[in-house]
Amino acid sequence: MFNPLSNEVLRQLADEFGTPLYVYDGEKIAEQYQLLQSAFNPASTRFFYACKSLTNINILRLINNLGCGIDCSSINEAYLAIQAGCSPNKILYTSNGIAFEEIVAATELGIHINIDSLSNLEKFGARFGHSYPVGIRLRPNIMAGGNLKISTGHEKSKFGIPLEDIQLVLDLVKTHNLQISGLHVHTGSEIKDVAVFLQVARLLIDLIPNFPELKCIDLGGGFKVPYQDNETGTDLKELGSKTAEIQAEIQRKFGKQLEIWFEPGKFLVSECGYLITKVNVLKQSGQILFAGINSGFNHLIRPMFYDAYHRIKNISHPNAPEKIYTITGNICETDQFAENRALAEIREGDYLVFYNAGAYGYEMASNYNARFKPAQVLIENGTSRLISRRDTLDDLLRLQIL
Questions:
Q1: 306 Cβ partners below 8 Å, 6+ apart?
Q2: Closest CA to 383 of 20, 23, 85
Q3: Whole-angstrom Cα distance, residue 30 to residue 269?
Q4: Is 349 inside a domain boundary?
Q5: Could you tell me the CATH number of the domain that includes residue 203?
Q6: Structural domain total, the chain
Q7: Residue 238 — φ and ψ, nearest 5°?
Q8: What's 258's DSSP letter?
């Protein structure tokens, strides 16, 4: 069983590489993938890591070596997956609102493609006809997910072809003799209720007779990850069992052996990640005690963008008596990470660690306020190594024309 990195190890890494610092434990990624493999056995499933959560090529290479595919939201992510050694058959590309030229580039790579709009599906049919198998992303009009900003299947969402337009899809399939190989739905992130996935599966099962060349149904990702101590995640064993039942039903009804695909992103990398920061200043304002750290929402935007909760720990003095703090950043915006949070007493210079920082942390970072992005370190087989260095002033100027 995976053991989280100790305070001592995290302090040593902070001393060696400086702060702010992102640290990823490869052992945890491997354990999460093994959990998927175990939970969904004996169902016939494939997993594609939603790499928008963390695209560092060393992470992609690690995940590819585990046997997992890569799910890409842009053509550049697909190019990175190729650079990481992933074979085209293990790359899935599902984007939205894109120029058709990007889809053409995806076909040149020979990867799996899902198309998100009637417009691009028509262009695809006119260009490729039956010669290139393609999936379609549907919008099921289901509200699901931990936050409206991460819900993608509801009736006002930009994602997918609305289910009520299925006849228009069928008309295009007939007109252009399209080879539809997959039906895809992704309803959002932080989905704890297994019933949501089953509801989506039921919608897709009803469509199967319309697509005789279907090879898979893709239920997307969004497995719930526990961020707080009292939370539990998606019951993967239950979902795995129900997935096997769904496949058996499809076999009985239609005589088809369809694979079921999932696209876990946060599930694979969230808990492997740590953001180590240093306390710059303590400031008392009435009853509020601020601890200002050497980071901001330019490094971890989730608390401000999604009202997301991250556990925070003082690893310099973990056994000190607790006091109540508001943890803030150092950029010229309101960048409050936590309010009224009980932490072991903080001193200036202490290291504070943000847990569950592997997904959508560094990946959504920026150089706002001309601040440098942090370094990233990966631990594999007990050895730590730098997988991206900290920015320098030259990096801030690199694309500017003087």
A1: 147, 149, 150
A2: 23
A3: 9
A4: yes
A5: 3.20.20.10
A6: 2
A7: -65, -45
A8: -
My answer on whether 84 and 224 are in the same domain is yes
Among the listed residues 51, 68, 272, 332, the single catalytic one is 332
Residues 72 and 179 in one domain: yes
Note whether 191 and 158 are same-domain residues: yes
Provide DSSP, 170-221: HHHHHHHT--EEEEE---BSSB--HHHHHHHHHHHHHHGGG-TT--EEE---
**Alpha carbons 112 and 92: distance in angstroms, whole number:** 5
**Residues 247 and 294 occupy one common structural domain:** no
Please provide the DSSP assignment of 62-120 as one string: HHHHHT-EEEESSHHHHHHHHHTT--GGGEEEE-SS--HHHHHHHHHHT-EEEE--HHH
Q: What is the pLDDT of residues 127-172, one digit of tens each?
A: 999 999 999 999 887 645 544 444 444 566 677 899 889 999 999 9
Within 10 Å of residue 270's Cβ, how many Cβ atoms? Answer: 26
Q: Domain ends where: 264, 291, 322? A: 264
Q: Kindly list the distances between the CA atom of residue 236 and the CA atoms of 38, 153, 190, 195, 282, in Å, as whole numbers in the listed order.
A: 9, 21, 13, 12, 43
393/274 same-domain check: yes
Please tell me whether residues 89 and 209 are part of one structural domain. Answer: yes
Structural domain boundaries enclosing 285 = 270-397
Annotation says 332 is catalytic: yes
Same domain for 352 and 383, yes or no, is: yes
Least confident of 64-68, 144-148, 285-289: 144-148
The torsion angle over the Cα atoms of residues 199, 308, 76 and 107, rounded to 10 degrees, is 0
Contact 179, 145 (CB under 8 A): no
Whether 234 is covered by a domain: the verdict is yes
Residue 196 has φ and ψ, to the nearest 5°, of -65, -45
According to DSSP, the β-strands at 351-355 and 312-314 are antiparallel
Pull the structure tokens for residue 296.
Answer: 């901001």
**Whole-structure pTM value:** 0.93
CB count in 10 Å sphere of residue 130: 12
Q: Which amino acid is at 20?
A: P
Contacts 24+ apart (CB under 8 A), 229-232: 229/311, 232/192
Mean confidence (pLDDT) of the chain: 93
